[in-house]
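Data deposition worksheet. Section B asks for the primary sequence of the deposited chain exactly as it was used as input, without tags or linkers unless they were present during the calculation. Section C holds the resulting structure in token form. Section D is free text for depositor observations; keep each observation to a single sentence. Incomplete worksheets are returned to the depositor.
Section A, Depositor: J.P.
Section B:
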Amino acid sequence: MTADQEKIKVLFLEHLETVTDPTINKKALQASAFKVISMLTPAAAQNILESHDAETPLQDKDIDDLTTPELNRIILQLLDLKTDDGIPLLYKPVSSGAAGQHAAKSIIELVDYSLVMLNDEVKPMFENGIDEADDELKQIIFAKHEAIIEKLITLLWDSGEDLTPAAYKKEAVTLARPPAKHIMPINRLTNVLSMPKGFDLFSDEAVNFVVSGKGHNAVSIRCMLTYEGSDIKLTGRQPLTEYDRNVSDAVISLYVYGGSNIVTAATVYRAMVNMTDTETPSPQQIGAVTKSLEKMRFTMARIDATEELKKRKVYADGLPITSWSRGDYLLALTDEEIEIGGQRVRAYKILAEPILYSYAKATGQVITAPSKYLAIPNQSNTEKRISIKSYLLRRIYGIKGKSKLNPHILFSTMYEDLDMQPTKDDKKRNKSYIDSVLNYWKKEKFIKDYSFTKSGREYDGIMIQY
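Section C:
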């Protein structure tokens, strides 16, 4: 090692002595840090020594200046040294194989510590740590977490290492913070894809169908779907379900607002229901999301919306769009699997903006809702409940928006659109759940009020006051 690297080791050991957290394996942390320090370029080592100044404790700083002091700051420097032009100057070349895996493992160990340390910094301010912080502070803290993970992903990507460990760490951070906003495409095509009475778009040639207007004012698009996977058989007129639509919306939301293009089935599920850090998706929930992701990442969609965009007079870069067609998988994802801690974790990388979102965005048919509307207090989430909740959310936005949909939502129409055949007991349970959903949205001032309507002696729908 160089003299500068030896000085950094001494500096690291001095601060390591101050660590009292019993969950931290100081011996393992030291070994990992020394491995990373040995990989530093001379310029990187010099940079660390020159920038090592004392940090003000968190409680004496403004929230916007949240930083990581002392030992953790050294670790962050080990993870994020760059030249002025943004090129990493961190490490000397590391060979592939066992040496590369050892290097990646050492970096991951440092990230593990950094996340624990970041939480510890908040404890002097809140008796129970992050859980007691308000939403604004949580956003800052979790943004810090995600920044650390992004550094790890970049390092592993640049060195050609497997991205899945980074995705696994990213998933652990995202557990605590789903996207703050939830995106839902609401055009005719998206509705047709998930409704049981829609067009059969799985065909040998594109299907032409009307998306708006009537008669001479009718506007059409052309669309064709092909399934290229071998593990799921798609038949009939319902290539996607309402649940699939919710999975797609969650992936879109993560792509736009999640801060990373690396996701897992768990992060997607949490985004679907705005799950908190005290909840964990069940194996069944993870399985349902995984099946849906696999279906959509092998379903190719070809959309020609030229006529629609021309009639809507859509512009791009100040010029009218005269042609719009695109072909891509409903969700363009690649996947990797790795065993971590005795568990197999599948991570997905989002390769491109989801095609349904691109089309809906081009025509201005997108809803962006606060994610908090998805987390109904004291209510568990099932596939049916997720579908009902999202259906109601879209309908109410349609009632309140330019579409001016009928504020009377009929249960019969809802069940037909969702392809549900509820029993008498199911209807009773669903009504109770809908009551909880609407009551929460009323408290959040999303709606002014609501009431259940009857046809004879049976409840037949809901009247929304907005």
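Section D:
The longest helix spans residues 98-122.
The domain at 376-466 is CATH 3.30.1370 (Ribosomal Protein S8; Chain: A, domain 1).
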